[in-house]
Design a protein that fits this description.
Order of helices and strands: EEEEEEE
Distance between the termini: 23 Å
Domain Rieske: 4-79
Shape: globular
Keywords: 2Fe-2S, Iron, Iron-sulfur, Metal-binding
Largest sheet: 4 strands, antiparallel
Low-confidence stretches: none
Cofactor: [2Fe-2S] cluster
Number of strands: 7
Radius of gyration: 13 Å
CATH architecture: 3-layer Sandwich
Strand content: 25-35%
Number of helices: 0
Helix content: under 10%
Structural class: mainly beta
GO molecular function: 2 iron, 2 sulfur cluster binding; metal ion binding
Protein name: Rieske domain-containing protein
């Protein structure tokens, strides 16, 4: 896997996603509870920019709530966790947090 230096830990927050672009791909990073998550910045449903969404816990899972249609996406798996019949899957870079700083 190729390493890309995108941001420092101090630049990452739970309250607002950190937007970046790697090889033409728009991504967003958050630091939540000493873990860094990275997914595509566009919701798989309607391409809404996810960096505007809220980070929330659902059933012990760290999720992003899409600001447009309120889809709830697990940051670790990319799954839409509330409505499985939608069969949505956001593109994620890793199945685990990119970095655990705890």
């Amino acid at each position: 896997m190729t390493e890309h230096r995108i941001a420092t830990i101090d630049q990452l927050h739970k309250e607002k996603g950190f937007e970046a672009e790697i090889n033409g791909r728009e991504i967003v990073l958050w630091k939540v509870k000493n873990k860094v998550y990275c997914i595509d910045n566009k919701c798989w449903h309607a391409s809404s920019p996810l960096h505007y969404g809220d980070i929330e816990e659902y059933d012990g899972r760290t999720c992003i709530v899409c600001p447009m249609h309120k889809y709830i996406i697990d940051l670790a798996t990319g799954e839409d966790i509330l409505v499985m019949e939608r069969k949505g899957l956001a593109k994620i870079f890793n199945k685990k947090p990119l970095l655990d700083i705890g």
